[in-house]
């Protein structure tokens, strides 16, 4: 999945504290040419210090071919429905669902209807989390 910082913003890709208006960002992505032409669209909200956060909008029927990430990931479905497939099985997920998998797990994603997901990718190097 390719993603990019938004060209119209000057915001840093990481920092001590960041806040994002997801509704505003989704509206912006849906207003761009790639979405209007029927393709998925994504933007990197944060990248650095071992954590990437990507906002992904997909058209129903669109898919991300099988791939893997260098670190553990989570996929939070905000709108619509997706099918998430790994060697272990397939899960259909809708709003309020969070999926996770370990680093290196090959997976594919299909939008069963127009969908919005927040994808979080941690670095491949584990570090203890204080709890």
Concise synopsis of the structure shown:
The protein is mainly beta and 131 residues long. Helix content is 11%, strand content 43%.
Q: Which features does this protein show?
A:
single chain, mainly beta, Jelly Rolls, five-stranded antiparallel sheet, four-stranded antiparallel sheet, 2 helices, globular, disordered C terminus
Note down, in words, how this protein is organized:
The chain has a single domain, classed as Jelly Rolls (Sandwich). The protein is 11% helix and 43% strand. The protein is built from 2 helices and 9 strands. The strands form 2 sheets. The protein has a 5-stranded antiparallel beta sheet with strand order 1-2-9-4-7, covered by helices on one side. A 4-stranded antiparallel beta sheet has the order 3-8-5-6, with no helix packed on it. Strand 1 and strand 2 (51-58) form a beta hairpin. The protein is globular and about 40 Å long. The N and C termini lie far apart (32 Å).
Q: Look at the structure and give the CATH class.
A: Mainly Beta
The CATH topology comes to Jelly Rolls
Strand content: 35-45%
Describe the largest sheet: 5 strands, antiparallel
What's the architecture in CATH terms? Sandwich
CATH homologous superfamily caption? Jelly Rolls
Enumerate how many helices there are, as a single number.
2
Query: What is the count of distinct domains?
Result: 1
Task: List the helices and strands in order.
Answer: HHEEEEEEEEE
Q: Spans of 5+ residues with little confidence (pLDDT < 50)?
A: 127-131
Instruction: Summarize model confidence as the mean pLDDT.
Output: 88
Form type: globular
Helix content percent band: 10-25%
Q: In which order are the strands of the major sheet placed? A: 1-2-9-4-7
Structural class: mainly beta
Query: How many individual β-strands?
Result: 9
